[in-house]
Design the sequence.
């Protein structure tokens, strides 16, 4: 079996992990989740979730990956707990399912980049979205986006993933800052910022049961937690890197980019008089695209915005594909190119039902957010906190001078606080799924 690859530099790892974390989750999902769940009230809960749950959970996946120096499934066997390999396998499944519908959004982005050049969506953005969001156009976009993802992953960790993210992540940040500066000059900027940054606590407290699962799920989604991605990526790390410092850098940059996306989206929506709540999952593809058609220089602005989305989408999709590719190629000693192509095809086929309509697409999204991600995170947290804690308290102390107090605090936070928070989120998420399916009635829950 060939020797495992390693990141060529620490910054290469950080940019790859940031690229995975940034993704469409920040620029596509974050604004529409914010708009759908109370605006600034959602942002507040999200930020709390990122700091108190996301950061320590990222360290959970980091210690598993670096300690084992193995793919997410075999990691547990290598650590001496083969009976827990199902947890890594579940994370691989989460990556597989997520990429199957995430790639469809990537296909939408490709259609809008083309539409920006041709002006196809300027006259009727909602009609254009309806024409490409499902059916044959969605299938073609899905296939092309998966092809791009497979192509990058096939080149390997250093020549493919690391090299690509070193270009894409700085590009995302530079272009997003530029759009944010431009959005600040719009007539509706003040109203957009008010909606985005001033929480309505009445809305917050009356909707906590719906805001919390989506905020925590969004935190996990935007940090690539629960997918085994960070286990896979950290397995290519050197032992002298500081995991807390790397995690802090990744969380910080990721959150900055998510917030920047809001500073672009909400001033635009406010300027053209569109209610943020009306867009749903298609906010970036209907409301924003329609705005570009009305604003001076809209074709260029639209091209830049959707190019950012493409970079973000690819930087995450390659990490989601790397998870099953690392497992299959290392376990069965198949060539990386062959494995990437085979798994990419399987993921493409699994996602085809989500191209039949937005209702089916929404089910893919809701199941991942409300069920699969929390379950995977809960498994990883229980393993690190209660099953193999001795190994991981030693691992987290390597390369850092934070001392025993940080390690002990982190361990007990992982043991007690995160399982309770994730368990509560999981219960609310399952409740939301059952309500949506019509299996239970809201009146029963309200007594």
Sequence:
């Amino acid at each position: 079996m060939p020797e495992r690859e390693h990141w060529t530099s620490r910054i290469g790892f950080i940019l790859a992990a940031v690229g995975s974390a940034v993704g469409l989750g920040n620029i596509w999902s974050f604004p529409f989740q914010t708009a759908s769940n109370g605006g600034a009230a959602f942002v507040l809960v999200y930020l709390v979730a990122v700091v108190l749950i996301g950061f320590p959970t990222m360290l959970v996946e980091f210690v598993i990956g670096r300690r084992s120096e193995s793919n997410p499934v075999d990691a547990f066997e290598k650590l001496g707990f083969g009976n827990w390999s199902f947890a890594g396998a579940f994370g691989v499944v989460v990556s597989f399912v997520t990429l199957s519908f995430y790639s469809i959004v990537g296909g939408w982005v490709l259609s809008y980049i083309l539409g920006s050049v041709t002006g196809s969506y300027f006259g009727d953005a909602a009609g254009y979205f309806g024409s490409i969001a499902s059916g044959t156009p969605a299938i073609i976009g899905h296939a092309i986006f998966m092809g791009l993802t497979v192509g990058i992953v096939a080149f390997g960790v250093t020549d493919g993933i690391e090299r690509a993210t070193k270009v894409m992540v700085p590009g995302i940040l530079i272009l997003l800052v530029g759009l944010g500066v431009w959005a600040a000059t719009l007539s509706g900027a003040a109203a957009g910022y008010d909606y985005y940054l001033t929480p309505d606590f009445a809305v917050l407290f009356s909707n906590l049961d719906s805001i919390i699962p989506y905020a925590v799920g969004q935190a996990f989604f935007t940090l690539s937690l629960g997918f085994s991605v960070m286990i896979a990526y950290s397995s290519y790390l050197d032992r002298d890197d500081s995991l807390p410092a790397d995690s802090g850098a990744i969380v910080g940059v990721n959150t900055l980019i998510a917030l920047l996306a809001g500073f672009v989206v909400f001033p635009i929506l406010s300027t053209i008089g569109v209610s943020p709540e009306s867009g749903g999952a298609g906010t970036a593809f209907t409301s924003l695209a329609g705005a570009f058609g009305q604003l001076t220089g809209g074709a260029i602005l639209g091209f830049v915005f959707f190019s950012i989305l493409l970079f973000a989408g690819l930087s995450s999709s390659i990490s989601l594909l790397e998870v099953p590719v690392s497992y299959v190629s290392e376990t069965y000693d198949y060539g990386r190119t062959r494995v990437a192509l085979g798994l990419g095809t399987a993921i493409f086929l699994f996602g085809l039902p989500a191209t039949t309509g937005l209702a089916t697409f929404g089910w893919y999204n809701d199941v991942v957010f409300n069920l699969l991600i929390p379950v995977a995170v809960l498994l990883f947290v229980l393993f690190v906190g209660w099953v193999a804690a001795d190994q991981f308290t030693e691992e987290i102390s390597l390369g850092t001078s934070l001392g025993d107090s940080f390690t002990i605090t982190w361990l007990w936070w992982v043991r007690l606080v995160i399982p309770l928070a994730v368990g509560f989120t999981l219960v609310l998420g399952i409740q939301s799924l059952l309500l949506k399916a019509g299996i239970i009635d809201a009146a029963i829950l309200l007594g």
DSSP finds 19 helices and no strands in the chain. Residues 21 and 223 are 4 Å apart (CA to CA). Confidence is low (pLDDT under 50) at residues 443-447. The two ends are 60 Å apart (CA to CA).
